[in-house]
Amino acid sequence: MGVYAPLLGVGPGPLWGSMGRRMSSCALSPPLSSVSFLFLLLLATPGARAAGYETCPVVQPDMLNVHLVAHTHDDVGWLKTVDQYYYGIENDVQHAGVQYILDSVISALLAEPTRRFIYVEMAFFSRWWHEQTNATQEIVRNLVHQGRLEFANGGWVMNDEAATHYGAIVDQMTLGLRFLEDTFGNDGRPRVAWHIDPFGHSREQASLFAQMGFDGFFFGRLDYQDKLVRKERREMEQVWRASASLRAPTADLFTGVLPNNYNPPEGLCWDVLCADQPVVDDPRSPEYNAKELVSYFLKLATAQGQSYRTNHTVMTMGSDFQYENANMWFKNLDKLIQLVNMQDVCTCGLIHDSSQQQANGSRVHVLYSTPACYLWELNKANLTWSVKEDDFFPYADGPHMFWTGYFSSRPALKRYERLSYNFLQVCNQLEALVGPAANVGPYGYGDSAPLNEAMAVLQHHDAVSGTSRQHVANDYARQLAAGWGPCEVLLSNALAKLSGSKESFSFCRYLNISICPLSQTSAHFQVTVYNPLGRKVDWMVRLPVSEGLFLVKDPSNKTVPSKVVELPSSDNPELLFPASVPALGFSIYSITRMPVRRPQARLLQPRPQKFGSPVLSIKNEYLRATFHPDTGFLRTIEVLDQKLVLPVSQAFFWYNASMGDKQSDQASGAYIFRPSRAKPFPVSHWAQTHLVKTALVQEVHQKFSAWCSQVVRLYPGQRHLELEWTVGPIPVGDKWGKEVISRFDTPLKTLGSFYTDSNGREVLKRRRDYRPSWKLNQTEPVAGNYYPVNSRIYITDGKMQLTVLTDRSQGGSSLRDGSLELMARDAAAGHRLLAEKELLAPQVVLAPGGGASYHHGVAPRTQFSGLSRELLPSVRLLTLARWGPEMLLLRLEHQFALGEDSSRNLSSPVTVDLRGLFSTFTITRLQETTLAATQLRASASRLKWTPKTGPVSHPTVPRLDPASITLQPMEIRTFVASVQWKEDS
Amino acid sequence: MGVYAPLLGVGPGPLWGSMGRRMSSCALSPPLSSVSFLFLLLLATPGARAAGYETCPVVQPDMLNVHLVAHTHDDVGWLKTVDQYYYGIENDVQHAGVQYILDSVISALLAEPTRRFIYVEMAFFSRWWHEQTNATQEIVRNLVHQGRLEFANGGWVMNDEAATHYGAIVDQMTLGLRFLEDTFGNDGRPRVAWHIDPFGHSREQASLFAQMGFDGFFFGRLDYQDKLVRKERREMEQVWRASASLRAPTADLFTGVLPNNYNPPEGLCWDVLCADQPVVDDPRSPEYNAKELVSYFLKLATAQGQSYRTNHTVMTMGSDFQYENANMWFKNLDKLIQLVNMQDVCTCGLIHDSSQQQANGSRVHVLYSTPACYLWELNKANLTWSVKEDDFFPYADGPHMFWTGYFSSRPALKRYERLSYNFLQVCNQLEALVGPAANVGPYGYGDSAPLNEAMAVLQHHDAVSGTSRQHVANDYARQLAAGWGPCEVLLSNALAKLSGSKESFSFCRYLNISICPLSQTSAHFQVTVYNPLGRKVDWMVRLPVSEGLFLVKDPSNKTVPSKVVELPSSDNPELLFPASVPALGFSIYSITRMPVRRPQARLLQPRPQKFGSPVLSIKNEYLRATFHPDTGFLRTIEVLDQKLVLPVSQAFFWYNASMGDKQSDQASGAYIFRPSRAKPFPVSHWAQTHLVKTALVQEVHQKFSAWCSQVVRLYPGQRHLELEWTVGPIPVGDKWGKEVISRFDTPLKTLGSFYTDSNGREVLKRRRDYRPSWKLNQTEPVAGNYYPVNSRIYITDGKMQLTVLTDRSQGGSSLRDGSLELMARDAAAGHRLLAEKELLAPQVVLAPGGGASYHHGVAPRTQFSGLSRELLPSVRLLTLARWGPEMLLLRLEHQFALGEDSSRNLSSPVTVDLRGLFSTFTITRLQETTLAATQLRASASRLKWTPKTGPVSHPTVPRLDPASITLQPMEIRTFVASVQWKEDS
């Protein structure tokens, strides 16, 4: 994308919140201890150089080689939907049609064998590929084999790096790279990662790329000050050490900053979308410009080369949706190459003053190349490269222009994406556990692929980022919804098979707004709760019901406690009962409405709290939260068993969105956050409160204004406080754009520092008004300190730590010591959303009960686990999914960072025994692969680079033993398993 | 072009005028007598059907066949210059690059063998062709051979039909068609003429096309009322009988009106320049539209078919500069064809209600076709067609929207074009007369080709029409000027050889503004006057000099009378002397300044005329013109020997250009003429006059205003009055756009009729507020009665006739009986221009004299004729030009219409004996060809059509006898001659 800046819209806000979770034992905890790296095993791939560079063009060793990279940047949705871009619909909105681009590029490559092109987005390429004839496919295979068509990046999309969760990144890259692997074999495997457009770059992204086997990484956007410094220091290219846990060079990635984002140099854009003058090489034409052009190009190339260290430099010749008529570009590039290289052999030619040219040292050779071939030359240069250990957030392309708004844009879509990730994992797991019977069964054809593709699309840097147009965001949601359908069929097939009962399943997609016709109207129904985690989970089920009393029975037909709660914020009473679900399995609960009417409702009726009334508080066995009697705001959080008390004031504020001012025209928008002044306005000075106290939940309902409310909640047994808030519709009658934040203020002495996660995985330390790699000239004291918060943000004084976990990506900061804030933005209408404790929350499926038997004569099963034993807490089952006929993809992850949890030893290496682990299938063959499952780990290799920090060793890969899969902190191991499903499962 | 409407600019005006000339004996003459057609010889080509249709696609006899014609319309200059269009420069002004169009179309044709395309403009195609590799050329030859690439029209440009002279039309068509003939042989010969964009259609154009061998003609623009009537009557296609002199079917041309100008139907434009939705045939896509599209197309095709008579109809799938990315168009057309024709075989498919479809009779078959293949189906239908005998002027595309402004737009360019035609004929003739020595000689490389090409470009319908942007008009002038250079070299080589003296020739290109350094500064110089006519010419030479007396000697060294005249309108005195020049030859005059100072200047000083002074008049032996003593305006013209007196008041007026009004938004512009009211304002009510009377000229200089003046002139021996006027700069300070006219008012009873020429050849009768083929609803009483005046306009009462000849194309009308007017428009700054009597005026070349001998030892020659005998008055040597090595192109023309001149019998058939006619070469072989010289006349054939007026006979071609070339009235005969130049010439 280029920048599209719609008018600022600030609308109703979403639900968010939940503190604690995976972070050791509780929200308040001792700080991270520093642990040495010595205990790590060696994970790096073998040292042989990666293949794939044999087809690269010849360069001139004694000249400046200018690598022209012909490319198109095809957003998988932005101003238009994916289908509109593919077909070239609504070309009056934006002229772009990917089908034509690919048609055209193939023709142009065939026309002239020296031409090269790269393609990136598999969401488009695979669609195009399936429309081609066998003959065309064969032609394309040849072009790929010859290196004339090269794939870069190769993910389904070019994902965003701020708002994406690492699990979804791995999935989308796997989907794209697998298409390439299946279609082109090794020829099609991208050697370079290529994120030319995302608006800032996360360290985790680089780590994942490294683990996928990429030899290098190129991107376009970084802070303008950073870029200037790098050009000056000739640090546009260096080694990025992208993990604090993984041993180098596992997460080392050679990274290059492109000279001109991803555009061609000024005046040299020869696309149908540009208006630069074409090369006119006929001296008889009044428009003849070849001589002038060559001279311009030589100056340009020489100047650019001075910011880079080798005698190679790259020019990206293409941009958004370019090459729809590839011939235009290539014809002019052909001429440029011919004209410039004519200078090589004949200095007496167009440029007459050859002596001057040599004096400038500007002997220039220009060639069609690719990012991989350019990278290969950099590698051959055999230099020692500087090392970067932080990330490239936030991104500013000029003073006052911080692209930190999109961290929070379209929170509803961001939430839907995260929910869909959860559902996709459930769908994948059940497909893997049940095998073909999940795909073809009594409910029709079940399939995880549509949701998998939709989720991959959502990772695009204008999708989950929230930067697309409204109708495109709607289409993303449509794609997700369309993906849910076949997964629901799959779940039905799977659950019927596993439970042995063909129920009429009901998925209640609108549980998030407390609508579920079955539970609200039926006198009897059953609730299947599926748990996608590798460990048993205890979870409070909440279902909308009509008023009444219910009898809830667990899988062993024992009655479990339940409550119907009426909430001040809703007309729908909710039934609560605690469920317990085994690892990778389900429990079925049976619910029956009792004939008694309205027994507890009156007793539990929440009452308004008055000023001066006794201190309002909620508590369970671990935590107590108190609220200020005057304001109704949260006042303290106590960890009861550790006797820790943290004063925490939490309230809502809003920044006035800038419309541009004297300092800069820059306004706040979907991409860019810019408040008109640094100090936010309070939404209100006090909150109206209601208390709900039952045996199964304690809640304080706070109403800050007509458009801003919050529920603070504690369930029994929980070590964290849940804050679920609803903002919207934000009043805009005063014409003041409002960026609403939730702010926590504590007395913690945080010394300007705070911590945010990187794509939900490792954590980076942030310092206010500071960047690790250059001396920052801060132009925006608020927006310039915002960072993406994918799953958590925390502050600590070394003794206590306040962590906020979020249920979707947001932007956050700490603008004063002890303070922490998160932003909500222009969301959809203000519906109450359910909070979730976990990324992989249990999936609830309802049914009326009494379905026909699946296995004739076999009694139904009310509880099931896909695992014969639970996984240890530090192990996450990142992926369990179908990979092919009788083949599964399996990823095991150590989800703790080095030294992160010293108290419970969760940061130690951990070993998993895969033998007999899964209850429904037997693994008959196991192969370990790189992260995206495109190469066997044993034979994969990457280019070697020498970092300035000293040489790294490239250890050999240990023999794979299914009985003993050891995971180091933050390590992900990926396996392709041949399996046989058991008959009786 | 589409319509580009710049703001109205009315600027200074040009020179024009001259009455009489070829029209019988004088400007006032008896009316044309009506003569029967019986005396005509049979000129038609033989009756065998033309070949070239073998490759046409298969059609469905029982269905409506929709012929899709994929085409691009590539203006040879309009908003951008020719080179800018070719290369795709200034794409922000208009996105258009012809080089890419041709690249792209060839690729797309190769990709799918059923696709077809037509190309039209050879100015572009030939340039592109010469840039291609042999391999590509071979591919293109194959495509042409297979009928997949078809050429339509095939002229260098698609010429304008209002402002073009027939000689230049024939030249430009010959240039383009010859390229095709040389490159592709018979495969490349266009079968149809294709004038989809010109703004109205002349009858002469159709006549010329017929004589060039075209089988049919398609165009797009005609009066909106005419079109409605034709659709109603199903007369969109008919036979155009395009000559009142030539015997049918010589000038009969089957002519079709395209349904939608030249654009695709609404919603079906799939070019990179359009934004219509592409075909989405994947039902899984949310953008799926195939079903809807097919249904729309079927309705559209059926409705369109109802305006045409056969079960075939045509759709032009393309427009201005489309197909730059041909794949876009073709890919969607492929899908459309597949989807629609799927209906043919399977009515149970997408359109479910098959019964309804049959009830509508809408069984539709759609196919890639070409104009020729469509024409071929029309021909095979074997119908009897209605006949049209008038023309398609003026063109209005809606009420108040008459495209009659461009008849007069850019008069300076129109004049330069006409002058260049004159010079090109001189250049061609001398190249033919002298042979290779004209090309390579002492002055370098002389060449007629650049001027020939430039003149061809000027015939484009946005060039000489005056409808291009200013910078493009400048570039047209540049091209002409660039073409003059090599012709000047050629003339120098030729004149040196023919005269035997290597003079330092000087061409004085600025003689039209009385600047010529040589004559103005030299005491002695010589003047070579070349006469391109087939008859001796007597001509008054006028040269700027400094004051003084001059001695002028003729070729035989006899003194001829001369005068130096000082003119009130100029600082430069002019030397006048009468020259006499033999046919196709030259006379050299020697000029010497005499030592006496200012002898006659004072005597001849013009004096201002006062009111009430005696009647002002000028006269010679044939004519007298008198001027009104009060107003100074022309009052009478008398033909002395016939004792005829015609009262003629002549003065200047201006129409206020409309800016749009309540009736219509239409403003006056470069294309469209629309006065705000029908009555023009007088420029002034009287003129200041000066009289110049010498033995060699009598002139009345009239000054009407600061920006409008005129010279009325009589030379001895002239049978016409010359009016040379200068308008400009027109004051625009009052914000009133001014359209200046010169109006002649007489008492002639003209009964609403007047006469204008068609491309300078045959004459058409016009009637005010009337159209011959439909009942006109007149919306613009002035603009709707304007017609193109290419060379003359006249009115007559049956006894007397007033004819005005023009020196360039203009628009004219007769808005009241006895009145006649001509319009001048937005010209360049008001310089004095020289009047010319003839289209082929003598060419003056100056030299200091005393050059070296060309043929060593041979005395120079001061007079020369290329003809051994003069041609008869009715014979024009239309073309004498180089055709190849030792080959010449020769066109002889009978320049009188049937019955036009009964008094001197000039309308009778005339016979020319070619044996020994030319003095410098011998014709060794003579072949007669069609008009454009692309086919031998004996073997050429055209499709036969049956007109409603009854069957026509197709006589055989008589044997060619060089001794007896008979020309019927208005007949042009074209010959290719092998020649040998004589050593001594």
From TrEMBL, chains A, B:
Its cofactor is Zn(2+). Transmembrane segments: none annotated. It is found in: Lysosome. GO terms for biological process: mannose metabolic process. Its EC number is 3.2.1.-. Residues 1-50 form the signal peptide. InterPro entries: Gal_mutarotase_sf_dom, GH38_C, Glyco_hydro/deAcase_b/a-brl, Glyco_hydro_38_C, Glyco_hydro_38_cen, Glyco_hydro_38_cen_sf, Glyco_hydro_38_N, Glyco_hydro_38_N_sf. Keywords: Disulfide bond, Glycoprotein, Glycosidase, Hydrolase, Lysosome, Metal-binding, Signal, Zinc. Pfam families: Alpha-mann_mid (PF09261), Glyco_hydro38C2 (PF17677), Glyco_hydro_38C (PF07748), Glyco_hydro_38N (PF01074), Laman-like_dom (PF21260). Belongs to the glycosyl hydrolase 38 family. This is Alpha-mannosidase. It comes from Heterocephalus glaber (Naked mole rat). The lineage of its organism: Eukaryota, Metazoa, Chordata, Craniata, Vertebrata.
